[in-house]
Automatic annotation (TrEMBL):
Protein's UniProt name: Fructose-1,6-bisphosphatase class 1
Cofactor needs: Mg(2+)
Native source species: Pseudothauera rhizosphaerae
Predominant subcellular localization, coarse grouping: cytoplasm
GO biological process, one term: fructose 6-phosphate metabolic process
Length: 333
């Protein structure tokens, strides 16, 4: 069987005029960094990478060693690429400028280096999420303001899933494409062309321990799902919650479903739990490109005008019909 690598796929995308040479190189560098993170994740205790780093990030969350390692790998790999104007990371408070003198590239890269940190020490799937925007500054150092573009302006978005196999899932605005890492060869192989989210689903993902803090529309929606055949939906639904957004979203891309981290009384003062710029926006672009929908419950995520780099938002995404139902319940309320 002829195997297509990520490199070949990207060259084809460039030939078809969907990406520039610089964006192709940028994605190649991110993919290389992802391979290095994958090696560290899979070595686990053997490489001494488990446990706390002993520091807090900008959000006041305790950093794991792997949060710090993954962040360093991504920053270092991309500093050298020459295609970036600046970066932003969940683990770094300010914009990360490129510390070299050569001309600035035309893109901004944002990432959540290690998503699902609470799962690292228990050997459950974690991931990396990234988003690419055009830099509006032409040669000058980008500021935080340069990054504050709505998600619909993303030119590429993707994630890596470090599961039983390592996968890279990518969109450049023409469908969603999945690649599986061949560890022996060291290359990503094109295994999942044009991934789509089924419109109908029988699965939902939400942290049910927060139920008493949810708003009424979410209470109503989940209560109806749980009533199954006996309730207004007239059929049974199954529940899953990995607590790694990457893993939960990947499941939805493979077999459908709805994922929710809604606004609740616990996270209301922060605006939500998940971060807009490097969690919600890239995942929303991927899900929409795969035929699904992504909303805060009130607005389309990709239309939100960001106010700050580390802004948090409520997230409801997945199969179209279910997301539309949640949005309708918010509207009715
Ligand atoms: O522990 P909770 O409240 O269920 O939250 C789980 C959510 O938090 C996250 O782990 C946040 O990501 P980080 O690990 O990057 O902070 C998501 O991946 C996941 O969906
Ligand atoms: Mg995360
Ligand atoms: Mg993280």
């Amino acid at each position: 069987m002829r195997r297509v690598t990520l490199t070949q796929f990207l060259i084809e995308q460039q030939r078809a005029g969907r990406i520039s040479a610089d964006l192709r190189l940028l994605i190649e560098v991110v993919a290389r960094a992802v391979k290095a993170i994958s090696v560290n994740v899979s070595k686990g205790a053997l490489a001494g990478v488990l446990g706390e780093a002993g520091t807090d990030n900008v959000q006041g969350e305790a950093q794991k060693k792997l949060d710090v390692i993954a962040n360093e790998i991504l920053l270092q790999a991309n500093e050298w690429g020459g295609h970036l104007a600046a970066m932003a990371s969940e683990e770094v408070e300010e914009v990360h400028q490129i510390p070299f003198d050569y001309p600035k590239g035309g893109y901004l890269l944002l990432f959540d280096p290690l998503d699902g940190s609470s799962n690292i020490d228990v050997n459950i799937s974690v991931g990396t999420i990234f988003s690419v925007l055009r830099s509006p500054t032409e040669g000058a150092d980008p500021t935080e303001q340069s990054f504050l573009q709505p998600g619909r302006e993303q030119v590429a978005a993707g994630y890596a899933l470090y599961g039983p196999s390592t996968m890279l899932v990518l969109t450049v605005g023409k469908g969603v494409h999945g690649f599986t890492l061949d560890r022996e060869m060291g290359s990503f192989i094109y295994t999942h062309p044009y991934m789509t989210v089924p419109v109908e689903t029988g699965e939902f993902a939400i942290n049910a321990s927060n139920e008493r803090f949810w708003e009424a529309p979410v209470q109503r929606y989940v209560a109806e799902l749980r009533q199954g055949k006996e309730g207004p939906r007239g059929r049974d639904f199954n529940m899953r919650w990995v607590a790694s957004m990457v893993a939960d979203v990947h499941r939805i891309l493979i077999r459908g479903g709805i994922f929710m981290y809604p606004l609740d009384e616990k996270c209301r003062s922060k605006g939500g739990k998940l971060r807009l710029m490097y969690e919600a926006n890239p995942m929303a672009m991927i899900i929409e490109q795969a035929g699904g929908a992504a909303s805060t419950g009130r607005e389309r995520i990709l239309d939100l005008q960001p106010q700050k780099l580390h802004q948090r938002v409520p997230v409801v995404l997945g199969s179209l019909n279910e997301v539309e139902r949640v949005v309708a319940y918010h509207r009715e309320a």
